[in-house]
Amino acid sequence: xxxxxxxxxxxxxxxxxxxxxxxxxxxxxxxxxxxxxxxxxxxxxxxxxxxxxxxxxxxxxxxxxxxxxxxxxxxxxxxxxxxxxxxxxxxxxxxxxxxxxxxxxxxxxxxxxxxxxxxxxxxxxxxxxxxxxxxxxxxxxxxxxxxxxxxxxxxxxxxxxxxxxxxxxxxxxxxxxxxxxxxxxxxxxxxxxxxxxxxxxxxxxxxxxxxxxxxxxxxxxxxxxxxxxxxxxxxxxxxxxxxxxxxxxxxxxxxxxxxxxxxxxxxxxxxxxxxxxxxxxxxxxxxxxxxxxxxxxxxxxxxxxxxxxxxxxxxxxxxxxxxxxxxxxxxxxxxxxxxxxxxxx
Length: 345
Known about the structure:
Layout: H1 9-23, H2 37-40, E1 43-47, E2 52-59, E3 62-64, E4 66-71, H3 76-82, E5 86-95, E6 107-117, E7 128-135, H4 153-156, H5 161-172, H6 183-193, H7 200-203, E8 210-217, E9 244-255, H8 260-268, E10 271-278, E11 289-295, H9 313-344
Antiparallel strand pairs: 1-2, 2-3, 4-5, 5-6, 6-9, 7-8, 7-10, 10-11
Helix pairs in contact: 1-3
């Protein structure tokens, strides 16, 4: 439930600081920059007759096969005000729902993003904030195992030049309450019309092929998911578990190409997210603040998909190489089986 919006900057700042001071330590105890079901705790679904299970996180009407959770990095001047805010991503595979017999195996690949906040955090406060999602970028974490790779945006985006350019551009905009155009619409237009050359490599072209900006704080912010909306859930993909989640963005595509390359990019591709907090009248944020988070879902950690003891380094390498195929193929098998079962029934 939302608290009544606070109208004065001082009480609002004090409220945020009280919440933030208690949450700073909790916001720093993830084992890696991004965590998945191994650390969050998701449900499981048994398939076949050999006790094989696959991750299954049900959230309202979505069933996610993989989850990724990352804290939004914050500068010192806003950390106490905003401590504990997070981004959550869930990936799902479902039947395309078509009746065309020529494409019996077509599936919908969907990614959803949620904004996580401490319990009682007022999304519709006097602070205005936006999130820019840079879809179809070439961002990628270093390392051979895309399933469990994680890190910073500087690592994923080929250095800090693009990150700095995007944050600088976002901070340069001014929020004016009486302007007809929303600040998030202004930011999206600015990013589309003014490409930073420092981002040429990670964009993969001389422009952003798909950038979408959504409001996350302020009058246009979405409502948090209520417990009454989520009765059938078997997991709450954030920690601490009392934190709230609000649905922000989705991206989907249909495919009948289940090659490893396609599945890797979908399941474990990296999405840069620019989160911007704007100062304004009655806002406790006195200076525009911008942060970059590079998010992906996380596959099972080492050993999660195997039961035999590793005998040597060669076995370790083989387990890592087969881990991605095993988890993604399992997820697709579950989706395909469910679609087939519904057709038969």
